[in-house]
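[09:14] KT: can someone run the structure on this one? pasting the chain below
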Amino acid sequence: MYKKLFHLVLLTLIGLSLRAHAGVILQYHHVSETLPAVTSVSEETFTGHLNYLKNNDFNVIALNELLDALKQGHTLPDKTVAITFDDGYNNNYDQAAPILEKFGYPYTIFVNPKLIDEGKRYVMGWDKLKELSKKGALISNHTAQHDYLHVKLDGETNTQWKKRITQDIVHSQQRIKEEIGHNYKYLAYPYGEFDNELQALVTELGYIGIGQHSGALNKHANFSRLPRFPASGVYSDIKTLATKLNSQAFNITQLSYENSVTTQNPPVLTIGFQVDDFNKSQLACYVSGIGKANLNWVTDNTVEVTSPKKLNKGRSRFNCTAPSIKKPNSYYWFSQPWVIQ
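[09:31] RB: done, structure tokens below
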């Protein structure tokens, strides 16, 4: 009897040791077959994504539950996922919401209050957002009108920029609170773009900054630049999306680079890892539109990542992955976004 009890406790501890301390956030824009394919999924494809989550026992929770758990250092159940939408398009109400309701899945919509107040016809009005919020949707901040937050106006000083962006974020948050009652201080960066100064400002204001670069996240994540996996357009194929949904977050001890918005080209990224569940030889990094990145292990736990040639101007990424030793068919995943000026 005692032997059986010992084995039961041992198996329980092993199971707990393999449980994820990470979560994955999915990002959508349109659920539509008539709008730009690059940011859209059809109702059939979207339903297929949710069926995959249901049939494979994913733990789909509200974004605030996921972020609160990570902030507090709690262990999340394995396969934890949050679903988000950017911009608050009408098709979120007409197409996406009824499908999500059938599955009973919570979700978050990041909205632009100034565009709503101006009555732009392509986004939901406050009446529809209130209706969805009463059914469990979380409404959060995507800035007033989707401007590039890190870009300074002609002749604008740092102090003036900081004041303008602060007013944008704070006023947008106030409008959401007035109309919906929500006051979750989550900011989805327009276009997924941010730089060091913007991250510092968002943190100073007490917000969590959320991007569009790929990757899982855990309690060690930088809460001024949380990743999400885009799930629309070319990223909507369930075969590749399944790998991302089952991904893990690297335990990163150091992350160094000049700036994510930069004139340094090619940029240099230094990552320090807690190397405990992957083999260094299996770490691979890729540069979007170019191919495999150069890796230089400067210490046993620290690698320097560079591109073999210059990146194209505009948005780009370094994506780094490594297969987990303990969890077969699961990959560690980290993405570094760049805006090359």
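[09:33] KT: thanks! Residues 158-179 form the longest helix (22 residues).
[09:34] RB: yep, looked fine to me
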